[in-house]
Amino acid sequence: MKNRYVVVLAAGQGTRMKSKLYKVMHPVLGRPMVGHVVKAALDADVSEVITITGFGADTVKDYLGDRSQYVDQEEQLGTAHAVDQARDLLEDKEGTTLVLSGDTPLLQAETLKRLMDFHEEEGAKATILTALADDPHGYGRVIRTEEGLVSKIVEEKDATEAERKVQEINTGTYCFDNQELFKALKNVDNNNAQGEYYLPDVLEILKDNNEKVGAYQLQNMDETLGVNNRVALSEATNLMQKRINEQHMMNGVTFIDPANTYIEADVQIGQDTVIEPGAYLKGDTVIGEDVVIGLNTVIEDSKIADGVEITQSVIDQAIVGKGSDIGPHSHLRKDSHLGENVHIGNYVEVKNSNIGNHTKAGHHTYIGDATVGHDVNIGCGVVFANYDGKSKSKTIVGDHSFIGSNSNLVAPVALGENSFVAAGSTITDEVPENALGIARARQVNKENFVLRYFNEDDE
Ligand code: UD1
Ligand code: CA
What we know:
Blueprint: E1 4-10, E2 27-28, E3 31-32, H1 33-43, E4 48-53, H2 57-64, E5 69-72, H3 79-84, H4 87-90, E6 96-101, H5 109-122, E7 126-132, E8 141-144, E9 150-154, H6 161-164, E10 168-177, H7 178-185, H8 201-208, E11 213-218, H9 230-250, E12 254-255, E13 262-263, E14 268-269, E15 274-275, E16 280-282, E17 286-287, E18 292-293, E19 298-300, E20 303-304, E21 309-310, E22 314-316, E23 318-320, E24 325-326, E25 331-332, E26 336-338, E27 343-351, E28 354-355, E29 360-368, E30 370-372, E31 377-378, E32 383-385, E33 395-397, E34 402-403, E35 408-410, E36 413-415, E37 420-421, E38 426-427, E39 436-437, H10 449-458
Parallel strand pairs: 1-4, 1-6, 4-5, 7-11, 12-15, 13-16, 14-17, 15-18, 16-19, 17-20, 18-21, 19-22, 20-23, 21-24, 22-25, 23-26, 24-27, 25-27, 26-28, 27-29, 28-30, 29-31, 30-33, 31-34, 32-35, 33-36, 34-37, 35-38, 37-39
Antiparallel strand pairs: 2-3, 6-10, 7-10, 8-9
Bound molecules: uridine-diphosphate-N-acetylglucosamine and calcium ion.
């Protein structure tokens, strides 16, 4: 195997996306397109990745970090001009250079490896990855000689009527003998419909110099989709969705309706977990084994332990311990940390709080900025009043406490272990260990009041 380098083209603005966001930063299931491309390149075991940046260079560099080296292309004069920016870094090196487009997010490492192996085994100076498209519109067409050898690539805008009918397309992915590439780039001109320096012209230049130029054809288009507009972006999302979901199914996860379930690229899911329709799992989320993720649940950047059951709820930046159950219609917000076997029922919101094992909050409760012990019972409609309009304050609830329904705990406040709050209380002071806190007006009954009240009306 030769030394292998990768050049990723990511300098274009992506005018056809009609977006403030640079094209290659548009996410496909949570990961920017250029992230998918660079990951595939790294997984294919290459020794160097060089990304050509231009529009949005800082955003792209911030995102990719040290996974790549960078060269700026100040003016976007075409794909050949873009590759030429890497001349100082690569020109003298021996080996194979793989060129990838930052807008082909579905290419897989395996395919790239096979392409590079094929290229090196054939001893070609250039090998182009092609595919057969049902609808080749918008792609460069692969023009072959009568013997079936690649003769040149013609861009849609430069193609004759007959050339446009060709269904074999340039996927925008190529392998080159590195030194030959940089020699040939010197001879690329911009005499074409778009006035750009086209990278595919390198193939014709090499061929005219009697160098070996090959093609590696993929049977289906799915991996090679180039995303130039939002229609293609949604197609890419659907293809990626199918790929990710199938991988999880092969690993032992049940999907009731995979077409209606979205799992972002970095999410991990344990065996025997069941995912119901409409679930959307995002970001850096880890789901354990034997979890049930119910209908229309959204989980982002969260850790869900084994055996948890979630029904129609939203969970964001939270940690849920083993065997807990949540929902329907509950919301765990940033920095909520639930212990094991916690019960969060319906219409409960939790924010920035620790909740101990076996604690229950069954109905209509807000828990914010709190530390709640284990085996606590939080009644219906309890509000942790954590905000006075200026600052947030903490509430502490000891183990084995019982908070009666419709109580307010006005922070900062503490309830000792095994304490008891009477229903309807507004607690503003500490309730000591083992004490009953009762903070409400005493009930007064006026005997026969109702009878008197209505009789007066009759008179
Ligand atoms: C390109 C190919 C076309 C192929 C298609 C596959 C050329 C001339 N055409 O067309 O044959 O079928 O990809 O998807 O190469 N870029 C730069 N600097 C530039 C120009 C482009 O970095 O000066 C980057 C873009 O950001 C993009 C990639 O190169 O990531 C491809 O450019 P794009 O304009 O999308 O090329 P296509 O028209 O799709
Ligand atoms: Ca493109």
